[in-house]
Amino acid sequence: MSVSLADLQLLVDVAELGSFSQAAARRGWSQPQVSQRVALLEDELGNTLFQRHRRGATPTPACLAFLGPARQSLAAFAQAQEAMQATPVLPRLHLSCLPSLASPVFGLLLSRLADAPVEIRCHTDHSQQIMQELLTGEVDVGFVLKCPPMSGIQMEQLWRSPIVPVVAAGHPLARSAGLLQLAAVAEYRIAPQYWGDGCEELIRQIRLSRPQHSAIHAIQPASAAREMVLRHGFVSFMPELSIRSDLRDGTLVRLEVGDLPLWQWEVMMAYRAGKRMDPAKGIVLEAARALAGECQQG
Question: What proportion of the chain, given as a percentage, has pLDDT over 90?
Answer without folding.
Answer: 65
